[in-house]
Amino acid sequence: MRTVGVEEELLLVDPGSGEPQALSAAVLARAARCAADDDVFEKELHSQMLEFNTHPQSGMDELGAEIVRIRGEAARHAREAGCAVAALATSPLPARPSIGMNRRYQWMAEQYGIATREQMVCGCHVHVSVESDDEGVAVVDRIRPWLPVLVALSGNSPFWQGRETGYASYRSRVWQRWPSAGPTELFGSAESYRRRVADMVDTGTILDEAMVYFEARLSARYPTVEVRVADVCLHADTAVLIATLVRGLVETAARDRQSGRGPLDHSVSLLRLANWRAARTGLTGDLLHPATMRRTRAETVVEALLEHVEGALSDSGDLERARASCARLLRHGTGAEVQREVWERTGSLREVVTACVEHTQA
């Protein structure tokens, strides 16, 4: 069974006003004094954000339990520091992002200007183990057209600087401002992948391999493929769904490689359009079908994804739960719809943040 790990980025907010608070140093200091936290928390680019990493897990029950536990610990440390944590991919309320003072972050601020200051966005990254770089690159090549469906399922950022954006995942649009972000062409081999990354670093436009922000990449730290397209999910069970589907995609791609089935050769231009449409409407409008790149009902595209990974999810015992989770999102809406419902009902973005603080620990 391939192991799975999840990185989540959480927003630190004032429990009264709902505004982002630059208190990550205080929260991390409290976490460092608690041995039970096992160094799962890390600083992020902006001081209003907190990142945590789960341990690699083989079972989705264990992964879900760990996400819930760490979210609870993050909330406790935040309360002690005078703030709260919210699984929000963007801040609904206006914010003045505060960039961390370490050398790397300051280099980014100088290099990229306003794009760095605006990157106060929270994502969910999923790591899945692979046997080798060759297998990993084969996986990266084969999962490309399916990744926009994960954007649609995880959409949790409809507001930006106090305004409704019209997008389910505006975070993904902001993320595209990095020069190395976005979908990739087919690599074909680990050698070609490594050469492309080295060429990118050699331009001096990015600092190192860790700043190659492909939608799916070989991890610079672990023997994994890292998928980086999802918003941080409002609910822990949605994060588990995204992790389940990513592992299913990785396993299916590896099996396709073994059987000699090649990747779909969609252009980067079409993949960008698929990503844009998924970010724009989430599950409430049409998506581009991963096989045909033509507009198709979201329900049909989600079903196509489940059928694509059915063998892998059946073998891991995750198929029925994944189907139930997808059906629940299609019926009740993603985090973006939860946020919009609170806003439409109350007319208050502060109430949106308050509700999301509660949902984060539900």
UniProtKB/TrEMBL annotation:
Keyword match ATP-binding: yes
One Gene Ontology term from the biological process aspect of the record: modified amino acid biosynthetic process
Entry-linked SUPFAM superfamilies: Glutamine synthetase/guanido kinase
Keywords, alphabetical: ATP-binding, Ligase, Nucleotide-binding
Molecular function (Gene Ontology), one example: ATP binding
Similarity comment: Belongs to the glutamate--cysteine ligase type 2 family. YbdK subfamily.
Function: ATP-dependent carboxylate-amine ligase which exhibits weak glutamate--cysteine ligase activity.
Pfam families referenced in this protein's UniProt entry, alphabetically: GCS2
InterPro entries registered for this protein in UniProt: GCL_type2/YbdK_subfam (IPR050141), GCS2 (IPR006336), Gln_synth/guanido_kin_cat_dom (IPR014746), YbdK (IPR011793)
E.C. designation(s): 6.3.2.2
Annotated NCBIfam families: gshA_cyan_rel (TIGR02050), PRK13517.1-1 (NF010041)
Domain of life: Bacteria
Protein name: Putative glutamate--cysteine ligase 2
Signal peptide interval: none
Reaction catalyzed: L-cysteine + L-glutamate + ATP = gamma-L-glutamyl-L-cysteine + ADP + phosphate + H(+)
